[in-house]
Specification:
Blueprint (H helix, E strand, L loop, with lengths): L1 E3 L3 E5 L4 H9 L1 H8 L4 E3 L10 H9 L18 E2 L4 E2 L5 E2 L2 E2 L1 H20 L6 E7 L5 H7 L9 H15 L3 E8 L12 E5 L10 H10 L1 H4 L14
Parallel strand pairs: 2-8, 8-9, 9-10
Antiparallel strand pairs: 1-2, 1-3, 4-5, 6-7
Helix pairs in contact: 3-6
């Protein structure tokens, strides 16, 4: 899930569903912090499994949806080898695999959403969030050993550059990792925030994410009404 105001957009960029879910859970808080009402809206990357390097690869190739269903490997979980990502929640009907039957409709949906993403350059600010705190990512790696969810310097640089190339200087990329910091390389060149999640699970720790939003200086940088008292995430 992403969220849009008149001047500001909050965008989920993976690496998994937790980022989108937590934006959805906290859109009212984010509206408060940013000083403008935000409206929830689906983004193209909300429900994908997509490491940072995969996003950079996809955008570098033009950011287009696959041309035909033959590019998607059904098992494991609708994998797109070209850019090393999963359309994890797509291509089913009534919980049954239906890749060919749903491909045209899914392509139409993603074409629209990808066009919306490229249109974000019209916003004054686009806060882009990427997290690797989902608790089952190790299971994904077992299914797809090519997946690398660590926020290494090279991966963070590639994703940040891809955001800049796609939506321009309004894009502000924020990387969210676990409280011990081992999920990301320490580098002051990037906005890396540590999430103090005492109850990590697939959808995330709501209280920890709320504290993270409140303690994130990027979110509070230009607020109209200050809201203090939250625990810093970074």
């Amino acid at each position: 899930m992403s969220a849009f105001g008149t001047e500001t957009a909050i965008i989920s960029l993976g690496v998994s569903c937790q980022t989108a879910w937590q934006i959805d859970r906290h859109v009212d808080l984010l509206s408060d912090l940013l000083g403008e009402p935000l409206v929830k809206a689906t983004g193209p990357f909300d429900w994908l499994i997509m490491p940072p390097a995969s996003f950079a690869s996809w955008m570098g190739a033009g950011g287009l949806f696959p041309d035909h269903s033959g590019e998607i490997v059904v098992h494991p979980n609708f994998y797109w080898p070209r850019h090393n990502l999963h359309f994890w929640h797509e291509f089913t009907r009534d919980d049954v695999v239906a890749l060919d039957e749903t491909f045209a409709q899914t392509k139409m949906k993603f074409t629209y959403l990808l066009d919306r993403f490229s249109g974000l350059k019209t916003f004054r600010r686009c806060l882009v969030f990427v997290s690797n705190t989902q608790s089952n990512l190790d299971e994904v790696v077992r299914v797809s050993p090519t997946m690398n969810f660590h926020f290494g310097r090279e991966a963070m640089a590639a994703l940040t550059q891809a955001v800049q190339d796609t939506i321009g200087p309004a894009g502000e990329v924020h990387f969210v990792t676990g409280r011990d910091g081992t999920g990301a390389d320490p580098d002051p060149a990037f906005r890396v925030h540590r999430l103090d999640h005492h109850n990590p699970h697939v959808l995330g720790d709501d209280a920890a994410w709320a504290a993270g939003w409140e303690g994130n200086p990027g979110v509070e940088a230009k607020v109209a009404t200050s809201r203090k008292g939250g625990q810093a995430a970074g």
